[in-house]
């Protein structure tokens, strides 16, 4: 499957600019033959958390309508990164995923809120998993800080995911954590990890380094530090072969780890 990783420069609080830019990139991805496009975290409003009352998408309606139309018209799967939403009077960091027939296949609210960026002061956390299928590929999606919780990603892998999509706004000072955690999650879960970060003009804030990693841990692509879209061809059939070579799922001993759920 040809995957377009769209590493955006998300404009702070400028919803119109961000929608225009995202549409341009998704159209370009489809033109270039991509079958799936993935976006970064909070691409509508960015982290303008104090202005969420004005900026967050009510029930995600604008975003859903936008992604639905593009995915159906261009016949492309879209892992819609995440956007700020307002649902039942609360704000969330929400991922929508559409298949290439324009059908919504999942809606996920970020489960782990990142205190260092004040998410816990403004947002509510989701409590549902995010497994879905795109074509015949069992997949999962998580958002940024979620990758620091191996239990969470393992649960998605145990529920069948062969690829875990990650949308992020991961800042430059901890970019080494980003790379190491993504690679570890791919190896331990024996999944593809396809992770898209944002960039910013001041590269000290956000410097991209989006990644595509196969289940043996080999990095197939790392993004640069500028806005870009890369189309990476991935072969999901290698997942089963790798899981047979080292049968981690058969060798697990969950009875030894049950206390981790406390
Ligand atoms: N947007 C986020 O969740 C950022 C997570 C992060 O930077 C981290 O170090 O974890």
Automatic annotation (TrEMBL):
- Indicate yes or no for the key word Hydrolase: yes
Name of the protein in its database record: Amidohydrolase
Q: Which GO terms describe its molecular function?
A: hydrolase activity
Q: Which Pfam families match?
A: CN_hydrolase
What's the source species' lineage? Answer: Bacteria, Bacillati, Bacillota, Bacilli, Bacillales
Where does the CN hydrolase domain start and stop, copy by copy?
1-238
Q: Member of which family?
A: Belongs to the carbon-nitrogen hydrolase superfamily. NIT1/NIT2 family.
Under the heading InterPro entries, the entry gives: C-N_Hydrolase (IPR003010), C-N_Hydrolase_sf (IPR036526)
Keywords tagged on the record: Hydrolase
CDD domains, A to Z: nitrilase_5
């Amino acid at each position: 499957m040809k995957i377009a990783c769209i590493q955006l420069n998300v404009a702070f609080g400028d919803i119109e600019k961000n929608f225009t830019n995202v549409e341009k990139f998704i159209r370009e991805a489809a033109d270039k033959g991509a079958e799936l496009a993935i976006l970064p975290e909070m691409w509508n409003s960015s982290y303008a958390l104090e202005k969420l009352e004005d900026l967050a998408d009510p029930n995600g309606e604008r975003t859903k309508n936008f992604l639905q139309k593009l995915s159906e018209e261009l016949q492309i799967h879209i892992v819609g990164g995440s956007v700020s939403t307002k649902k039942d009077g609360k704000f969330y960091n929400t991922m929508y995923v559409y298949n290439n027939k324009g059908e919504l296949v999942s809606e996920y609210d970020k489960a782990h809120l990142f205190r260092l960026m004040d998410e816990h002061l403004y947002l509510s956390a989701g409590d549902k998993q995010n497994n879905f299928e795109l074509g015949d590929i069992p997949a999962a999606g998580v958002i940024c800080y979620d990758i620091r919780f191996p239990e969470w990603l393992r649960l998605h892998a145990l529920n069948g995911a062969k690829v875990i999509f990650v949308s992020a706004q991961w800042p430059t000072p901890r970019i080494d954590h980003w790379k190491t955690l993504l690679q570890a999650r791919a190896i331990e879960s024996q999944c593809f990890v396809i992770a898209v970060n944002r960039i910013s003009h001041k590269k000290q804030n956000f410097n991209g380094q989006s990644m595509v990693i196969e289940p043996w841990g080999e990095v197939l692509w790392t993004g640069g530090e500028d806005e870009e879209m890369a189309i990476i061809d991935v072969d999901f059939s290698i997942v089963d072969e790798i899981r047979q070579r080292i049968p981690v799922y058969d060798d697990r001993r969950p009875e030894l780890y049950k206390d981790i759920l406390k």
